[in-house]
Amino acid sequence: MRCEHGALHEETAARAAKNMPQEEEIGRVAAAFKAISEPCRLKILFALRQGEMCVFHIVQAVGGTQSAVSHQLRILRSHGVVRARRDGQNIVYSLADEHVVALLELACTHLHCKL
Amino acid sequence: MRCEHGALHEETAARAAKNMPQEEEIGRVAAAFKAISEPCRLKILFALRQGEMCVFHIVQAVGGTQSAVSHQLRILRSHGVVRARRDGQNIVYSLADEHVVALLELACTHLHCKL
DNA sequence: CTAATATATGAACAGTTATTCATATATTGA
DNA sequence: TCAATATATGAATAACTGTTCATATATTAG
Question: What pTM value is reported for the model?
Fold first, then answer.
């Protein structure tokens, strides 16, 4: 290639290749972002931002069927985005940690959304 | 439902429904996260974290075919994650803003990845 | 133990998305 | 203008992901 900045970019590319995270780590990060990249799951997260809730109330807050919400909750949980604890007959879900809230807020800021 | 915290959760659900962002905003946030949720695209972002590069060097840094990288770049660009500028025969790509870097770093922290 | 309620899950289908291949466009140098 | 290089893109196929339906598991009340 005849890039004007050939030498500089060549160096950048070499550094990038050298510092590229492992496939496994890339995969984990990708999976985490994918977990929060579907409208239904995002709704669940925005809802849980108001406080912990059991499935019944999450369904009430975000709409959709119990089955669909439950499937999505499993995905969120398996990716460490939300955590669940049993409370009698119910399972109460909440956001896993502040990172999740921070991610949501960063994205909203980036996109000039009001929260 | 017979949730112990019925009254409290009921209130949380109502607040969540009331403060739920518009479908359109949810969609934008979801699309943005989806844009950065594929391994190939993440690699591109991690690479660009080292500095701007033209397509040729990005391909060198992340591997894969020119065509595939180009397709992914288009997706990243159309979602405002990276920006492109022409420089002679080349198109030089760079991360759109600090939010992108912050998102990557937050995710890595959350997942206990080294960066 | 049985009935009722809350939540989870497997399988199938539908819609979406990534990759590849071939080709198009744009820029530069001769 | 022509050849060469860099990048982009349309179409087709293959892989993935969400939703639904039916059903399973777990907990509590009686």
Answer: 0.88
